[in-house]
Amino acid sequence: MKLAVFDFDSTLMDGETIDFLAEVHGVGDEVKKITEEAMSGRLDFFESLTTRVALLKGLEYKKAVEICENLPLMPGAIETIKGLKDLGYKVVCFSGGFRIATSKAKDILDLDADFSNILHEKDGVLTGLVGGDMMFSSSKGDMIRRLQNLLGVTKQNTLVCGDGANDLSMFSEASTKIAFCAKDVLKKEANIVIDTKDLTKILEHIKA
Questions:
Q1: How far apart, in whole angstroms, are the C-alpha atoms of residue 47 and residue 93?
Q2: Which terminus has fewer CB within 10 Å in the chain: N or C?
Q3: Given a cut of 80, is residue 100 above it in pLDDT?
């Protein structure tokens, strides 16, 4: 059994889900600035997430779902996941973003599972609150350990791929650490660095 774990925003998907939502809600510049600080490791992830989601308060939930169901996939995403599955990997997605985005991508990409956060809504609008599996900078590492124990997968048979500081915790749990179009803080910890927006480049580094 082998396990491949991908970040979602700016890894499997070309962009940041919360930035797309913020743009429609008229708070795009403010949210993008906080996202950049968080992904570069200069802001605590939990604080940055809750601050950004609070700015989405009042956005119509139906509109948020519509946006999240039409996000652009990263070039090569479908082919790369199929290629890894052909090599015997279970492929899952971890996201500090939102279930309304990752659940749709799970179906399109044929992922084995997705773990992300839930945007709270009431009376058809976002309340500005959020909760879920991926709220903290340590969440991805914690979830990988739980999956490894459940599936009987070793660190040596684990591959991870991400782009930002909140992916650091999962890098310590895997032997194959891929920084994909990543921030410098993540590149420093990677043993594979890909700077081209083409996920199929990963397959060139992976042995059967």
A1: 22
A2: C
A3: yes
